[in-house]
Structures are given as structure tokens and as C-alpha cells.
């Protein structure tokens, strides 16, 4: 490869310091609040603890486009990762939100959030191949690796995805990456929500190269990605007006006008074809119906019941509105969260209470 | 070191009075099918790794969830180990029974509960065969993507427990990428749901943790899988090469060009000849390696990609590139590959299938090293390779009736796996650790990492009753295994008590 994709000398390995800090915290039983770029501090419950900053532990460790794998230290800015991938003509297919310039690779994995392409391409957890982590037993470990398939032992790397730093400190992660699509077309069509959901159900059974579908109450927004031939043919078939591709970035980064509404922001994760949810407030549909953003001053219990009745769950994205932003867990599942946390972090030093008060 | 359960290094197992236990089980569950006579137990002595056999204490074949719950409760009460079994096609001894344990066969849970074409999911019982899901979804133009070569026989419960792959997983993912929700029973028989009908669930991703956990964390009682629309067209290119290196390089070139094939498989000369003899797929038997590259999707895209790939293959030095002319020829090309294991089985009384993964760039080096080992151990090897995702299946040919050959094959296999670890790969890409690779786990993970695995296991099964001895070796086993591989006079686990 003639182009330089990344500079292996850029960045620094602080894992020895981080390990020493964790070992000290275990010995003294002083909780730590793990911080990446702190771009997502609003997400989850507040943690009252000594910060453990990953921001200095940076650098892309390896990237070989023909292997479809990139490995980076946890504090590496997402922007740096994305720039390297861009040079290699590839992408993180799960289209992660950055929420500012500071978001890190470790924070992305720990938050586990995915963008509009999620239902078609997969989530962050689907693309993580391996991790290095500092455990609550004071050890620095490696799970998974840089290969596509690996079923040796339990899949700790995927367990860490979305764990919000409650099970250990991620120091390094490897991801499967994919070539960027050759062609992309975005479209908009005026259409009521129920009709849009019906259409999406129908199109979903056909080989149409959809990679995003959103609805704001009156308009359906679609994105097609693939090779020239299939994208052009599908665009012609589906019809609609041209839409600027930046719509999807604004949706992912929560920059659309919808997000300016002063009411609390909720995320409802429900089966995609769930009929329009009747509740006070405004809704913005992403993930082809499977992710519904809600701006509402309805009480948390009603919102949670609504989500649960649809076989889904609700998360509050606005800090300080509810004590538990995440949907409460069923009793046996909660108990296994507690035993898992206790076994992996016996002194309870990692982000105590960040996800749930009693985990 | 024998791989059968060894209480000395794998941990003591509780003993119960067999007759009394059987009697209690019969009286609590009068309708439950229980096998206990020696001749009835025989078919359950092994899974697909038939070189290793153990007679279970009892085999139970429940039909109702409540029966599974009661069996689990009784076993928990009496501290009797439980080994789950699906269709028993596993190749790593994951469903190998225990003399002191109950073998819980889930194969009778074989109903497809729901196919939702608009929602694009299927809800099925764990004993449903992998292929049966795609067949049931076919009238709606949908299918279930992961397609292990054993798909006509293996169960979806076993697929989830092994995180099974197939020839299409570079593009469509492994089992873990295609499962939405799993209903489970804990070791104490408590019901729980992992994942959800939506695309995610609150809390830790226990669904991901349980996928591939080899029956060690709970019993799978229902699975909801994702269905995909069938690609409009699929085309297969067959390319012949006069060296394995060139074929390996061609794989990298295809991916570097931004093309992700639906399937990308490689076979070496011995595998090509074996498959050709058996299936008459039309393979070029003189080639040192062939690549099968399937491109699927929408007509126009597939056409473009076929042209691109053909040029790349020719530039990489292919001696011949053939496009399957029609569907019949496409199916024949694949049949050769999908029957490679039985085909190789015809060359030799026994074969031993390895499952290591490596970064693709290491392919020429690793194949070269395998050829050297083959000479050293004096055993032939055929190579079949999920080339797109670096998953190798070297098949070691041996004759178990020739004294010492099985042991030589095992030792050879162990060396291949250690080689995979050394180049940054893994000892298993899809068949699982089971009992077979329990010693090689000591090469892939250090004692700190194994300790964390044990901590995970203890969170769900503190008494260690679910499938003991599989998947994660005890530190004692690794100490003994390590003692046999002393490097520079240094034991790998110096801090451990020796036995
Ligand atoms: C307008 C706006 C909208 C936002 N919307 C969302 C949203 O929808 N979803 C969302 O999740 N976030 C959201 N965030 C916040 C956000 O804080 C993200 O989750 C982000 O990608 C995390 O990257 P980071 O490096 O900044 O992580 P941080 O914010 O530093 O950390 C995120 C979480 O991961 C943990 N963590 C970080 N690094 C590691 C590590 N190396 N090992 C273990 N744990 C670690 C932290 O303890 C924390 O719990 C939003 C922020 C803004 C400003
Ligand atoms: C010819 C041949 C080709 C093969 N090709 C492939 C391939 O291409 N890709 C691939 O991945 N595998 C392949 N395999 C291996 C095997 O088919 C898979 O591992 C399959 O997933 C096993 O399913 P099973 O139902 O037979 O499970 P079993 O062998 O019965 O069990 C496998 C494991 O799953 C556990 N288990 C089974 N059911 C349950 C349950 N309900 N709850 C909890 N645990 C359970 C068992 O305890 C055991 O650990 C092949 C096997 C053969 C014989």
C-alpha cells in the first residue's frame, strides 16, 4: 500500500500507569470513574469517584485494510480512527455517534451506541473482535484478537460493549471494518408514519440496499448504499425527492431541530414495525422504526410501560430527569448482573452505580 | 494427556447413587423419557468427535419446558452435572457426556413457533435444525444466513451454544450476529430472557456472552433469529492456482478492492482431489489450490463485481478462472466444498478436523509450517479454508487402528493450534473448545485470563454443574499441560501448586 494510513509512532502507551492506578484503587477500595473523552457523561447515572483518564493512552496500533481490522488504544480519538479508515477507503459500518470532537475508541465501545445503519449493518458489539482490559482483579488481560472468527473462551469483548465501564477498563480494542460503499443516494418522501412502517415491512423482505430509514411524523427519509447499479435501480423504484446526505450525520449526532425541544429526551428501542406510539410529545423515528426518539414530559413510568408493552425498553438521555435512566431489569437478570459485577469487580471500583444503582 | 474427564486435574465431581437418582427422577417426572440401559446409552457416548467416548449416567429426552426445569432442579439439589446436547454434530466434544452426569438432550424441542415475514424473524425451539429454518422461511423469500456445513443436521440450540459459522459468514456474520433473543433456564431452572424483540436490551449484553458459551452458563430453550431476504442472484467463480501463496494473495487483493464476497473458500490439492473423486464437481485436479468466490446481491452489482474479481484473479496469477454457467453448476461447485470433510474421510479410515484461525496474511507461512509438521509426524493433511475470514480446517488423516496414530494426530493437531496462536490467531474459529482443545486453551490464555473466565462461569453456575470440564481448563490442568512443555526451563504457571 503506497499511502500512509496511520503513524504507528503517534500516541503513547500508558497501560502500565493505568494498571498501577487500578491496582492501587483495588488495594484502597477507592472507586474510579473511567473517562474517555467525557463526551457522554450525560449518558447514564452520575458517578462520584476519582476520575481515571484514558485520554492520554492513545494511538492506532495496527491497521491493515486487506485484513479488514483496525486496532487502537482506548484513548484514541474516534476522529483519528475514522481518518485512518477514510484513507484506507473503509469505515466502521455501525456508524457510531461522536457527540463532539473528544469521543474516544474506548468510550465508543463502552457506550455501545450505533448510528442509522445499525439495523442493516450491525452494532458496535457486532464489530468488536478483541479487547485488552484491566480487570477488577488488578490484571491486564487480552480477549479475542484480530481475527474474524474466534470462539475460544467466553466472549468478553462483546460483553464489554455497552457495559459503560462497569466491568473493567478497556485499554485497547480491535474492530472489523468494511469497505465504504461505492454509491449512496438519500431520498425523502412525504408520507404518514403508519404507511411508512408498512412500506418498510414490505421493502425489508426484498433485496433493496437500504442502509437507513427515518421518519419525523410527516416525512420518510431513506438512504440506499451499495454498488452503482443496485442503488440507482432502487432509487428509481422507490422514488422521492433528493435528500442531502448530511441529514444522517445530523440525525446520528442529534443535531436536528427535533433535539432542541426543551422536554426530556427518551430513546425507545422497540420492534421495528411497532405501530405509532401514542404518548404526549414529539417523536423522531430512526433504525427503520426500531429506535424511536421521544421528546416528552410524560412521566417515566408511563414511557417505560409503553415501551415494555411493545416488547421494548426506554432510556432517558437527558441527565437528572430520573434516577435510573435505563429500563429496570427483570429480577433474575438483575441478580445475574449483580453476581457478574461482584465476580469481575469484587471491590466495586469501576463506575459504581453508573448503569444501575445496585449493580 | 488424555482428554476424557480427569477428576484429578479437572475437579472432583459429586457421586450419587444411580439407581436411587433414577428412581427419584422417574417418580417426579413419570412422563419423561429416560434412557438408562447400556444399549440405549451407547448412541449418546459421543458427539461428532467420535474418537472420544464416555457413557453417561443417564440420558433424558424432555419434550416440555417444565420437564427440563424439574431435571435441572433435581440435578442442582443432588449436585449432579448436566451436559446439554442438541443434535450431537459438534466437532470438539462439547456434548461429550460424563459418567457421573445427566445428558440433557434438547433435540425433541423441534417446533418452529413463529415465522414473521414482515418483522423478518423466526422464533423456534432449540432442537430445530438449522436448515429447517431457512426452508420454513423460503416461501416468504427469506432465509437464515449462518450455514454450517452440518446444517441439515445440527440444531439451532447447538449453533447458539457454539456460535456456529458457515461459508457465508464473512459477509453475513456468525450466529451471534443473527440471533435477536434467547430464552434460557439457569442452572437452577429459573427462566430468563436474553436480548429482546427489539435490536437491543438494557444492561450488559448477556446474549453476546451466552452465545458460544458451550452449554456452560445455562440451557437454551427458545431462539429468535433474524431472517434476511434471499439475494436476487448468486454467482460463483472458480479460480485455479499453481501455488497456495498466489491463491492467498488473491484473497487479499479481492478484499483490498472493496469487495466482500458472500463466500470465499480455498482448498488445497489433496482436498480438491478428494472432493472431485467424491462429488465430481468439475474441479481442476492438477491445481495446487482453488478459490471459490461467491458474489451475491442485486443482479447489476453482482455482474460488476464478477468482472472485477475475474480481473483480480487473473492478475494474481490464476491459471484458470471459471464462472459457474448456471445454477446447477454453482450448486455443484459448492457441493464439492460442502462435502470436503466426508470426501477426505474416504481417503483414510479416520481424519481429525482442526479449526484454527489466523490473520490472512500469515496463510503462506502457516501452510508451509503445516506441510513441515506433516512430514515430521508422517501424517497426510488436506486443507480446507474459509479464506475470507482466516478460518482454517486442516484435516489430518490417520488410522486409529494403527497403534500410536491417534496420539500422533492429536499431537500434530495441537502443534497446528499453537502455531495459530503464535501468529496472532485462535485455536478455534467455529467448532468450539469443548473437550478437544481444552489443553490448547492454556496456550491461548494465561492464568489471569483463565481466572476471569472462571469468575464469569461462577456468576452463573457457582457449583460448576453445567458441562464441567469443557471450554475453560482449570489452572491445575494448565499447570500439568505446561509442565509437559517446559520452555527454557521455565514453567508457565510457576505460582501454582504441582500435582
Ligand atoms: C448532544 C449529546 C448527545 C449524546 N448522546 C449520546 C447518546 O445518544 N448515547 C451515548 O451513549 N452518549 C451520548 N452522549 C454522550 C457520550 O457521553 C458517548 O457515549 C461517547 O461516544 C463516549 O465517548 P467518550 O470517549 O467521550 O466517552 P465518555 O463519555 O468518556 O465515556 C462513556 C462511558 O464509557 C465509559 N468509558 C469510557 N472509556 C472507557 C474505557 N476505556 N474503558 C471502560 N469504560 C470506558 C465511561 O466511564 C462512561 O461510562 C451524548 C453527548 C452529547 C453532547
Ligand atoms: C460434517 C460436519 C460439518 C460441520 N461444519 C461446521 C461449520 O461449517 N461451521 C460450524 O460452525 N460448525 C460446523 N460443524 C460443527 C457442528 O455442527 C456445530 O458446532 C453445531 O453448532 C453443533 O450443533 P448440535 O446441535 O449438533 O450441537 P451438539 O453437538 O449437540 O452440542 C454442541 C454444544 O452445544 C451445547 N448445547 C447444545 N444444545 C444446547 C442447548 N439447548 N442449551 C445449551 N447448550 C446446548 C452442548 O452442550 C455442546 O457444548 C460441523 C460438524 C460436522 C459433523
UniProtKB/TrEMBL annotation, chain B:
- Keyword Phosphoprotein annotated: no
This protein's record includes keyword Flavoprotein = yes
Give GO terms: molecular function aspect only.
(S)-2-hydroxy-acid oxidase activity; FAD binding
Q: Which cofactors does this protein require?
A: FAD
Q: Name one GO cellular component term.
A: glycolate oxidase complex
**Taking every annotated instance into account, which residue ranges of this chain make up the domain FAD-binding PCMH-type?**
52-230
Alphabetized InterPro entries for the sequence: FAD-bd_oxidored_4_C (IPR004113), FAD-bd_PCMH (IPR016166), FAD-bd_PCMH-like_sf (IPR036318), FAD-bd_PCMH_sub1 (IPR016167), FAD-bd_PCMH_sub2 (IPR016169), FAD-linked_Oxase-like_C (IPR016164), FAD-linked_OxidoTrans_Type4 (IPR051914), GlcD (IPR004490)
Could you tell me which Gene3D superfamilies the record lists for this protein? 3.30.465.10, 3.30.70.2190, 3.30.70.2740, Uridine Diphospho-n-acetylenolpyruvylglucosamine Reductase, domain 2, Vanillyl-alcohol Oxidase, Chain A, domain 4
Keywords of the record, alphabetical order, are:
FAD, Flavoprotein, Oxidoreductase
Pfam families the record matches: FAD-oxidase_C, FAD_binding_4
Q: Which NCBIfam families match?
A: glcD (TIGR00387), PRK11230.1 (NF008408)
Protein name per its UniProtKB record: Glycolate oxidase
Q: Which organism is it from?
A: Pseudomonas putida
Provide the organism lineage as a comma list.
Bacteria, Pseudomonadati, Pseudomonadota, Gammaproteobacteria, Pseudomonadales
Amino acid at each position: 500500500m503506497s499511502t500512509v494510513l496511520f503513524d504507528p509512532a503517534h500516541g503513547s502507551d500508558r497501560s502500565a500507569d493505568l494498571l498501577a492506578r487500578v491496582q492501587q484503587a483495588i488495594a484502597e477500595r477507592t472507586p474510579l470513574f473511567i473517562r474517555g473523552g467525557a463526551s457522554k457523561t450525560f449518558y447514564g447515572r452520575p458517578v462520584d469517584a476519582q476520575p481515571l483518564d484514558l485520554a492520554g493512552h492513545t494511538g492506532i496500533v495496527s491497521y491493515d485494510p486487506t485484513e479488514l481490522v483496525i486496532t487502537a488504544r482506548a484513548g484514541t480519538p474516534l476522529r483519528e480512527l475514522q481518518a485512518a479508515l477514510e484513507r484506507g477507503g473503509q469505515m466502521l459500518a455501525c456508524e457510531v455517534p461522536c457527540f463532539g470532537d473528544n469521543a474516544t475508541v474506548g468510550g465508543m465501545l463502552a457506550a455501545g451506541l450505533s448510528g442509522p445503519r445499525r439495523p442493516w449493518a450491525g452494532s458496535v458489539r457486532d464489530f468488536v473482535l478483541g479487547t485488552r482490559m484491566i480487570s477488577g482483579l488488578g490484571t491486564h488481560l487480552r480477549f479475542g484478537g484480530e481475527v474474524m472468527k474466534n470462539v475460544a473462551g467466553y466472549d468478553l469483548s462483546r460483553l464489554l460493549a455497552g457495559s459503560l465501564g462497569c466491568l473493567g477498563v478497556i485499554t485497547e480494542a480491535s474492530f472489523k471494518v468494511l469497505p465504504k460503499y461505492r454509491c449512496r443516494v438519500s431520498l425523502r418522501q412525504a408520507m404518514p408514519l403508519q404507511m411508512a412502517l408498512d412500506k418498510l415491512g414490505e421493502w425489508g423482505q426484498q433485496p433493496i440496499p437500504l442502509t437507513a430509514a427515518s421518519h419525523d411524523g410527516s416525512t420518510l427519509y431513506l438512504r440506499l448504499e451499495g454498488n452503482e447499479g443496485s442503488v440507482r435501480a432502487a432509487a428509481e423504484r422507490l422514488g422521492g425527492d433528493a435528500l442531502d446526505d448530511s441529514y444522517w450525520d445530523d440525525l446520528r449526532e442529534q443535531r436536528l431541530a427535533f433535539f432542541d425541544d426543551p422536554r426530556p429526551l427518551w430513546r425507545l428501542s422497540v420492534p421495528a414495525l411497532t405501530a405509532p406510539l401514542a404518548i404526549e410529545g414529539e417523536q423522531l423515528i430512526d433504525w427503520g422504526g426500531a429506535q424511536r426518539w421521544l421528546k416528552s414530559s410524560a412521566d417515566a413510568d408511563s414511557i417505560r410501560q409503553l415501551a415494555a408493552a411493545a416488547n421494548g425498553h426506554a432510556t432517558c438521555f437527558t441527565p437528572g430527569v430520573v434516577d435510573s435512566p435505563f429500563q429496570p431489569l427483570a429480577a433474575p437478570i438483575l441478580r445475574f448482573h449483580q453476581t457478574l459485577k461482584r465476580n469481575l469487580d469484587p471491590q466495586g471500583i469501576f463506575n459504581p452505580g453508573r448503569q444501575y444503582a445496585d449493580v | 494427556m488424555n482428554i476424557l474427564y480427569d477428576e484429578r486435574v479437572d475437579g472432583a465431581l459429586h457421586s450419587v447413587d444411580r439407581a436411587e437418582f433414577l428412581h427419584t427422577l422417574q417418580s417426579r417426572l413419570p412422563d419423561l423419557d429416560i434412557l438408562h440401559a447400556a444399549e440405549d446409552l451407547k448412541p449418546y457416548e459421543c458427539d461428532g468427535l467420535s474418537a472420544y467416548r464416555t457413557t453417561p449416567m443417564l440420558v433424558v429426552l424432555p419434550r416440555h419446558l417444565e420437564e427440563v426445569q424439574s431435571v435441572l432442579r433435581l440435578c442442582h439439589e443432588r449436585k449432579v452435572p448436566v451436559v446439554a446436547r442438541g443434535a450431537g454434530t459438534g466437532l470438539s466434544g462439547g456434548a461429550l457426556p460424563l459418567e457421573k452426569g445427566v445428558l440433557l438432550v434438547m433435540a425433541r424441542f423441534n417446533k418452529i413457533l413463529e415465522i414473521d415475514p414482515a418483522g423478518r424473524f423466526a422464533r423456534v425451539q432449540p432442537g430445530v435444525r438449522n436448515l429447517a429454518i431457512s426452508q420454513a422461511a423460503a416461501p416468504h423469500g427469506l432465509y437464515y444466513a449462518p450455514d454450517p456445513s452440518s446444517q441439515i443436521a445440527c440444531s439451532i440450540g447447538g449453533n447458539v451454544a457454539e456460535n456456529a459459522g458457515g461459508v457465508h459468514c464473512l459477509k453475513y456474520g456468525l450466529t451471534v450476529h443473527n440471533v435477536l433473543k434467547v430464552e434460557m433456564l439457569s442452572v437452577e431452572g429459573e427462566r430468563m430472557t436474553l436480548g429482546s424483540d427489539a435490536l437491543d436490551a438494557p444492561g450488559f449484553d448477556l446474549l453476546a456472552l451466552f452465545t458460544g458459551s458451550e452449554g456452560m452458563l445455562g440451557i437454551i430453550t427458545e431462539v429468535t433469529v433474524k431472517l434476511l431476504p434471499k439475494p436476487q442472484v448468486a454467482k460463483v467463480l472458480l479460480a485455479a492456482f499453481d501455488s497456495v501463496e498466489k491463491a492467498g494473495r488473491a484473497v487479499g487483493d479481492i478484499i483490498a478492492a472493496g469487495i466482500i464476497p458472500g463466500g470465499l473458500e480455498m482448498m488445497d490439492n489433496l482436498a480438491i482431489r478428494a472432493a472431485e473423486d467424491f462429488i465430481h464437481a468439475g474441479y481442476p485436479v492438477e491445481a495446487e489450490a482453488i478459490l471459490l468466490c461467491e458474489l451475491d446481491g442485486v443482479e447489476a452489482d453482482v455482474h460488476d463485481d464478477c468482472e472485477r474479481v475475474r480481473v483480480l484473479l487473473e492478475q494474481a496469477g490464476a491459471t484458470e478462472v471459471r464462472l459457474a454457467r448456471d445454477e446447477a453448476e454453482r450448486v455443484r461447485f459448492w457441493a464439492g466444498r460442502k462435502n470436503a470433510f466426508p470426501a477426505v474421510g474416504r481417503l483414510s479410515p479416520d481424519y481429525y478436523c482442526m479449526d484454527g484461525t489466523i490473520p490472512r496474511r500469515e496463510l503462506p507461512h502457516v501452510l508451509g509450517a503445516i506441510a513441515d509438521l506433516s512430514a515430521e509426524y508422517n501424517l497426510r493433511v488436506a486443507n480446507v479454508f474459509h479464506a475470507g475470514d482466516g478460518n482454517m480446517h486442516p484435516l489430518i488423516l490417520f488410522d486409529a487402528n494403527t497403534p500410536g496414530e491417534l496420539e500422533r494426530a492429536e499431537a500434530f493437531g495441537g502443534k497446528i493450534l499453537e502455531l495459530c496462536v503464535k501468529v496472532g490467531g485462535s485455536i478455534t474459529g467455529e467448532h468450539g473448545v469443548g473437550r478437544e482443545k481444552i489443553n490448547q486453551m492454556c496456550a491461548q490464555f494465561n492464568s489471569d485470563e483463565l481466572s476471569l473466565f472462571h469468575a464469569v462461569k461462577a456468576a452463573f453456575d457457582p457449583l460448576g454443574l453445567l458441562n464441567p470440564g469443557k471450554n475453560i481448563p482449570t489452572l491445575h490442568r494448565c499447570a500439568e499441560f505446561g509442565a509437559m512443555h517446559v520452555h527454557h526451563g521455565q514453567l508457565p504457571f510457576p505460582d501454582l501448586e504441582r500435582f
